[in-house]
Amino acid sequence: MTTTTAPTTARKPAAMAQALNRALRDAMAADPSVHVMGEDVGTLGGVFRVTDGLAKEFGDDRCTDTPLAEAGILGAAVGMAMYGLRPVVEMQFDAFAYPAFEQLASHVAKMRNRTRGALPMPLTIRIPYGGGIGGVEHHSDSSEAYYLATPGLQVVTPATVGDAYGLLRAAIASDDPVVFLEPKRLYWSRADWSPDDPEPVAPIGRAAIRRPGTDATLITYGPSLPVCLEAAEEARAEGWDLEVIDLRSLTPFDDETVTASVRRTGRAVVVHESNGFGGPGGEIAARVTERCFHHLEAPVLRVAGFDIPYPPPMLERHHLPGVDRILDTVARLQWESDRTEGRGD
Amino acid sequence: MTTTTAPTTARKPAAMAQALNRALRDAMAADPSVHVMGEDVGTLGGVFRVTDGLAKEFGDDRCTDTPLAEAGILGAAVGMAMYGLRPVVEMQFDAFAYPAFEQLASHVAKMRNRTRGALPMPLTIRIPYGGGIGGVEHHSDSSEAYYLATPGLQVVTPATVGDAYGLLRAAIASDDPVVFLEPKRLYWSRADWSPDDPEPVAPIGRAAIRRPGTDATLITYGPSLPVCLEAAEEARAEGWDLEVIDLRSLTPFDDETVTASVRRTGRAVVVHESNGFGGPGGEIAARVTERCFHHLEAPVLRVAGFDIPYPPPMLERHHLPGVDRILDTVARLQWESDRTEGRGD
Amino acid sequence: MTVLEQPGSSGNKGTLPGPPPAWRPHVDPAPLLPDATPYRVLGTDAAARLDPGLLTSLYVHLVRGRRFNAQATALTRQGRLAVYPSSTGQEACEVAAALALEDRDWLFPSYRDTLATVARGLDPVQALTLLRGDWHTGYDPREHRIAPLSTPLATQLPHAVGLAHAARLKGDDVVALAMVGDGGTSEGDFHEALNFAAVWQAPVVFLVQNNGFAISVPLAKQTAAPSLAHKAVGYGMPGRLVDGNDAPAMHEVLTEAVRRAREGGGPTLVEAITYRLEAHTNADDATRYRAADEVETWRAHDPIALLERELDARGLLPGEFVTATRDAAEEMAASLRDRMNADPELDPMDLFRHVYAEQTSQLAEQAEQLRAELAAEAADQSVQEARP
Amino acid sequence: MTVLEQPGSSGNKGTLPGPPPAWRPHVDPAPLLPDATPYRVLGTDAAARLDPGLLTSLYVHLVRGRRFNAQATALTRQGRLAVYPSSTGQEACEVAAALALEDRDWLFPSYRDTLATVARGLDPVQALTLLRGDWHTGYDPREHRIAPLSTPLATQLPHAVGLAHAARLKGDDVVALAMVGDGGTSEGDFHEALNFAAVWQAPVVFLVQNNGFAISVPLAKQTAAPSLAHKAVGYGMPGRLVDGNDAPAMHEVLTEAVRRAREGGGPTLVEAITYRLEAHTNADDATRYRAADEVETWRAHDPIALLERELDARGLLPGEFVTATRDAAEEMAASLRDRMNADPELDPMDLFRHVYAEQTSQLAEQAEQLRAELAAEAADQSVQEARP
Ligand SMILES: Cc1ncc(C[n+]2csc(CCOP(=O)(O)OP(=O)(O)O)c2C)c(N)n1
Ligand SMILES: Cc1ncc(C[n+]2csc(CCOP(=O)(O)OP(=O)(O)O)c2C)c(N)n1
Ligand SMILES: [Mg+2]
Ligand SMILES: [Mg+2]
Questions:
Q1: Is C213 in the pocket of ligand 1 (CB under 6 A)?
Q2: Catalytic site residue C289?
Q3: Mind listing the pLDDT tens digit for each residue in B108-151?
Q4: Which structural domain, as residue segments, surrounds residue C187?
Q5: D241 forms bridges with which residues in the sheet?
Q6: Were D76 and a residue from A306, B38, C279, D81 both cysteine, which residue would form a disulfide, CB within 3.0 to 4.6 Å?
Q7: Which atom of ligand 1 is nearest to the CA of C210?
Q8: What cofactors does this protein use (chains C, D) (predicted)?
Q9: Which of D133, D184, D288 shows the shortest C-beta gap to A313?
Q10: Chain D neighbors (3+ CB pairs < 8 Å)
Q11: Helices D91-99, D247-262: crossing angle, 10 deg rounding
Q12: pTM for the full predicted model
């Protein structure tokens, strides 16, 4: 995986889950107001082991196994933040964040605004999301559209080991609430990495160009980044040089980077695993089109999960955007003179 | 307000709330499996009086004041539907549907699919939504983006008195769960209406052209329809003949009607009260662009609520899309030869 | 602490079959259960022991509180408040909640508890900002240690738990008192908050004002429990049942619960039996769902009348005191009316402030758009004004 | 029924200050409280009165159940199941839940309760569909009156209430039995469901299997209550505490609760004290959070061993019976293994079925897209196969 940051110090292979763990540890060591809380985050170290060792190192009061109640967890975290702490909440799986939805939408997202800045919410809500790990139902939702539609939240999702560390540090440091979406099928993806890399804190709100290209832009994030990079490699055989943008932050959105790229390439495809209809791709395609209309050779197209409940493990591969589906879509970007409309025509 | 259906029988002025009430009454009379439930829907007749008289006419078992717990209400309704009833749930205000979000996303939307059709969910969830009535915080959310992003739900919203009746009858008759969004600031809007109008049941999934026009299409729904119609009238002074589409159903989306219109007019603006970023407008603009790209003279633009928590009563008029903001946006549809990019350029 | 002691402790190992090994009940439920009837002081022998200073102070607060409620309701009729949910009839609960707390403690009011915030010392105009509609919260919660008035029911309860827990972690002896209605106890957030509080032994007092109704829904449709205070044992905290119209009883029970919490004794659930004498809000018509004679029955148990009787019996209600108390309340009301009659300063650009710590480029764009619109509006207006 | 009788009934009107008028406690909490120790039959005098037929039938089910759990766990190792949450050690609860119900009743299992569905008669392969991963629910819930295994914790409880309520409205004497874990009792949905059930007097039995852990979290971090059964009084329903490893005790308590519900007596909360002898699922490592000797302590209280002791004492455990029971269980396991070794039939186009009653134009388009992709894939493959 290409990153924009060049390494300087000793690096060794690390999995994303380890980088996240290290980010939590470093944040807790640096700031005593950082508190980790959630189901099974203490003794067990989380079902994905992202909080491994934290309770031992910092004590149960800094890394707390809570009762099994997501609204209670997030609601208590709101109160802790009101008192000046910096809670980092783990939701065990995407769909199990839903019970906390009212706390999120009505309080976490609005508290700063409701109180004219008197009660900021420096909360991080870590949510393992997305599919591809053979999970049974309710364990593979891509729920980012809900968070995108909620002003007051920052929505961040790393796709590389380095960003997992850097963005999580930035999220915890942020004075605004961050929904931190961890692509669970990348937890065990590895890369050479060291937390001593320059700029270890990745800025929230800035996309990264993971692969420069000239012919079209793939706009993606999280679990779909490796798929897009693979598609871009394969596209060379077809003669297409694709640029790949990793959004990293969905909110705030990096219009600058995305707009500049699409104006250069003239073509764009948004790729994500979330359902297409009402998913983030619509917003992205719409705003890119608003800003790049006269540079576009073709409509911005989308490759997304189908508009269905997440399928059972044995069928999920058909649902997930794969390399072929991306290339098929790139092929529809009206490269020749055949100017027919897009799908549905 | 123009409707596509011509009246034949005796009509008299009725408010939307009355038409909704009549729809519930007629549905309950026609089908003993229809049960109305929610907070204050019984003795009080609902805080907006939409269920007025139903408990008296059909008894407490058919129109039930529940305990104050939205997840419990919707969860119980799921169980009732499993046993063959057709529950119609009232959520008292938009933001007070959030506690039921898990039941909605994980069960209501998925039950049919999870069980290969064995357990359909013929549920209607009525939610008064949107602002403009001077409500204090948490009483004016436009939460439709959440429902749009949830496959398995139908999302319907009337904008006229006739549709309030017709769509609610259709929603209750639907074998799928319907999130029925009632524009609360139109509750007391009146029109000449009779339930004996031909085609009283409006089809789910079909948009209506409320005003034919040739120069550009305003795509809207719910509380923004009257504003768009007013804007279209005022636009005549500027020499623009605007077509106004009332989507009525957000899911399923009527691509046919919308695509045909925009291909004809070549220009489109989506108007809604919901926050712009991550709101329905992105999806609508994206899919219109996919389907109409080479017919478009300008990017599809959006007029939406700002990307902020819903403001307090005294400031809400600045937030809500009004006639001027719509006309300003129409003016940016590149009518002359000045081919600059859209906003943000 | 709980039925299963982890790890590895065992019951009567060896004597099979007996109770499951490792099973042992640890908490005696008896002290957690509420009394069969609401605790009261007024009209009992205990009343004689009450401190005169406390009684007169409560009285001043109650009278002032009732006047405040009346004034706020009047302001809705004048269009100066968007809406007002009155606590008339419940003043003893509101006042006791405020007085039970130290300055460093936190109050978590629900939307009906404006009076409690005012009794705690908040400027009435700031307290009414939400209901006037110029902003959501009119005060700095940290400055006053009063959380925003909570409209989504019961959602403030977990906040109180988290704040109290955080304070304890920081070594501060701060207590949180959270208020909720009988209807609010049906929400999942009520359950989760009480459970967290008990497990964490957080210094929180939960005050349920059981006024018999959630808008139109009577308690019988809200719960089948012997009392709401009986919920406490299910979390492992004491439940207390109090006559919510008996101001000294309320004050005593809450003060005691606050003390217990402060000393590390954990949370308490207090159910106050009271009654909302007015409609749900000015916009509500209570005659649709309750009979006038029920209201009259409760008027006979008015918190102010109850306290007056005691004061009078003890010679603590001289005419000058009554007059002075009423005059002071009138003065407060007059000042409130005057100040609320002034239009609040509004800045539409506030819409874009405090959404995030730093304004995003998108919000900056939108602010620019609104600024331009307002300028155009103003220009239009001055053109129109310039016309003859 | 509740503390405030509406409308207009009054307490000791006239004798002011007394309890607030219109206030009157209606439910006696005493009968709703659980006993101090879990109810058990095995090893007590009551055991002698147990019907031999019931005992041997429970025994067959328990043995079969344990074998089922072992086989399912083995299938995860062979990659035939994605995951399996075993109920080994909890078989008495699982089996009693199934046997307490009539055919027309409904079972609402949680994700750990595959065994209860099998004990109720569901085809084991259908019961395991969810965990194999070919579809979410492998059976028709209406046909078997078994709700889908619920993964989101406690969310099935309000469904059970709604279904039972609907049945009663329709005049059917159907009971719903809903299962949940100790961890699940912390969720708001637990609270809301129990409250609805009590207010509606719905024919529901709530069975909490308190196995001491929610994944790694011990009960002491989940609740501070004297017992989970003590939550019942807070809803106005009886709470019963049972030794969950005592199969006849479980059977008796659940059967009684079901009978009471059927006869219009309303809901019951039953807490079964039990223990999960294996890890949370095959993917979990339980040694990270609990000591081996705790597990051993519980092995000594094994539900099958407890029952065997009683059967043996009464001469109901002849060698042939034991052998025949084991053989039958082995046969079930072998057949299950064989059937699970066959790859399930998959149709990718199922993705688009049953999302809505009628396929939308959008889904039709997407189905078309997938069909084309699959055709291209197949063509690719046959080209590749054709190569030498
Ligand atoms: C989550 C939520 N659901 C619904 C409402 C609408 N609502 C406002 S007040 C109210 C009744 C509250 O009753 P109770 O808790 O007894 O408090 P009281 O009004 O008696 O003080 C309702 C249903 C709300 N504010 N929040
Ligand atoms: C709403 C929700 N939150 C979290 C989870 C993740 N999760 C699955 S099982 C489990 C523990 C359940 O414990 P308990 O209720 O005691 O049941 P047991 O596993 O002991 O049978 C958790 C946290 C979930 N399935 N649903
Ligand atoms: Mg009340
Ligand atoms: Mg458990």
A1: yes
A2: yes
A3: 999 999 999 999 999 999 999 999 999 999 999 999 999 999 99
A4: 31-341
A5: D271
A6: D81
A7: 16
A8: thiamine diphosphate
A9: D133
A10: A, B, C
A11: 30
A12: 0.96
Distance between start and end Cα atoms, chain C: 83
DSSP string, B9-22: S--EEEEHHHHHHH
CATH number at residue C243: 3.40.50.970
D64 and D125 share a domain?
Answer: yes
B residues 142..201 contacting A (CB < 8 A): 145-146, 148-152
- Assess whether D129 and D228 both reside in one domain: yes
Asked if residue D360 and residue D328 are part of one domain, the reply reads no
The tokens of B342 are what?
Answer: 């859209």
Query: CA separation (Å) from C248 to C40, C184, C233, C272, D348?
Result: 8, 25, 25, 12, 70
Q: Is C104 helix (H, G, I), strand (E, B) or coil?
A: coil
Q: Is residue D317 part of a domain?
A: yes
> Based on the structure, what is the number of domains in chain C?
2
Per-residue CA distances from A271 to A12, A157, A247, D175, D223 (Å): 30, 14, 11, 48, 44
Q: Which ligand sits nearest to residue B70's alpha carbon?
A: 1
Are C211 and C268 in a shared domain?
yes
Q: Does one domain contain both C372 and C229?
A: no
Q: Is B29 in the pocket of ligand 1 (CB under 6 A)?
A: no
Euclidean distance between CA atoms C31 and B321, whole angstroms: 59
* Same domain for C218 and C129: yes
Domains of chain B: 12-193 (3.40.50.970), 208-341 (3.40.50.920)
Are D170 and B83 within 8 A, CB to CB?
Answer: yes
How many Cβ atoms are within 10 Å of A31's Cβ, its own excluded?
Answer: 13
Please indicate, yes or no, if residue C324 is contained in any of the structural domains. yes
Q: Cα separations (Å) of B271 from B231, B238, B329, B337?
A: 11, 19, 10, 25
**Cβ count within 10 A of residue B230:** 15
Question: Chain B partners of C377 at a C-beta cutoff of 8 Å?
Answer: 324
- Say yes or no: C319 and C198 in one domain: yes
* Chains adjacent to B (≥3 CB pairs closer than 8 angstroms): A, C, D
| Protein residue whose Cα sits closest to atom 4 of ligand 1 | B96
Cα within 13 Å of Cα(A316), Cβ side: 22
> Is D314 part of any domain?
yes
Residues D380 and D331 in one domain: no
* C152 touching A (Cβ < 8 Å): yes
Contacts of B150 in chain A (CB under 8 A): 278
Give the nearest partner residue to D136 out of A67, A137, A325, using CB atoms: A137
**H helix count then E strand count, chain D:** 13, 7
D106-108 and D176-181 beta bridge pairing: parallel
Cβ distance of B278 and A344 shorter than 8 Å: no
Query: Are A341 and B293 an interchain contact pair (Cβ–Cβ within 8 Å)?
Result: yes
Portion 208-227 of A in contact with B at CB < 8 A:
none
Q: What is the ipTM of this complex?
A: 0.96
Q: Where are the beta strands (DSSP E) in B122-267?
A: 124-129, 154-156, 178-183, 190-193, 208-211, 216-220, 242-246, 249-251
Over the stretch C93-128, which tens digit does the pLDDT of each residue have? 999 999 999 999 999 999 999 999 999 999 999 999
CA A77 – ligand 2 centroid, Å: 20
What pLDDT score does A5 carry?
45
| Residuewise pLDDT in 10s, chain D (388 residues) | 333 333 333 333 334 445 555 566 568 999 999 999 999 999 999 999 999 999 999 999 999 999 999 999 999 999 999 999 999 999 999 999 999 999 999 999 999 999 999 999 999 999 999 999 999 999 999 999 999 999 999 999 999 999 999 999 999 999 999 999 999 999 999 999 999 999 999 999 999 999 999 999 999 999 999 999 999 999 999 999 999 999 999 999 999 999 999 999 999 999 999 999 999 999 999 999 999 999 999 999 999 999 999 999 999 999 999 999 999 999 999 999 999 999 999 999 999 999 999 999 999 999 999 999 999 999 988 888 777 6
